[in-house]
Amino acid sequence: MSRIPYISVALRRRLTAMYCPGESIKTHKDETKHLRAEYKKKLILQGYSKGDANKLSLSICSYKNKIFSRSTLNCYFKAVDSFQQFCLETLGSKRISPEEASLHIQEFVNWNIEKGFTSQTIYTRLSGVCKALGLNISDYEKPKRHYTDVVRSTRPAKNDTYNSVRAKKALRANRIIGLRRAELCTLALKDIHFISDTCVEIHTIGKGKKHNINLISNPDEIAELKEMIEDAKRNGLEYLLSKDETRNDADLHHERAKKAISVYNSVCDDMAAHPERRAYYQNEILRVFAENGKTLRENLDSPYRCRGKNREKLEELGKPTVFDRVAVLYVSCTVTNHFRSDTTVQHYLIK
Fold first, then answer.
1. Chain segment 308-339, per-residue pLDDT in tens
2. Which of the four, 10, 35, 64, 139, has the lowest number of CB atoms within 10 Å?
3. Among the CATH numbers 3.30.160.250, 3.90.15.10, 1.20.1250.20, 3.30.1330.30, which is that of 168-247?
């Protein structure tokens, strides 16, 4: 009889089998949207209410057992490694079958809570383990995530002083552009398009193989970006940054957040000084949504208001809790590429 492998080994194998680099998550999302719509029609014809039909259709997902990003796969690997540590400490063995492991998921959540891990970390770990075991994360009780509790990019890191020199160009480049780390490190010069003296388009392929466009309109930033490009060309580079300039653990996400805040403030100031400009930003938002095949479901005339614990925490810190939705969505379309107010506010603007 063969020996049961370590649980992390078994779950890593399952996760690796789900990894599908090169496939487009957008294609799968479009397929899922179509299948759900057809299923809802069928249920309604059978007598179900629209609300019940909608809830039942959510079980359909063509990419449930797929992982598109290497970073996501690595994150899930860490999650199952932590689950193995839980098994060793509480069950006395790392050699348990996936079937037995499925019986201890709530205990795993409670173990993480007792260890003092943040709700965000617990949620991430639970996601990875549930993905590997084919379980539904909503079936387990877990602490709620509040984005004001997230400490990423809000505290100094131990290598910040070192990186302020070693990663100076990378940090400054991302303060101008506002990309994710992987996008910045692979930004080719040919993907930087100077449309006019006050408009530069940065074309990248981001999460889920999405084709994103970041805009730069500040003349000083455009001039600085031109100098970086000339410097790269003098060194015979095809990319904005050399390999040496990308080998760092600098907090590039913090610079991305700074860019988002800068653009938000700039748009708010512009609309305050020139009220007629609001229509321009609204039209730009509608244009970008249409070009990306997305439907705008937010009311541009309604401000975005933080609620619950997020609002209470922000009030304690003396930070704003109400944001201009037009400015937020403009940032979401031209910097963060999330196309959602809540994500842009909670992950970037309140930092």
1. 888 888 888 888 999 999 999 999 999 999 99
2. 139
3. 3.90.15.10
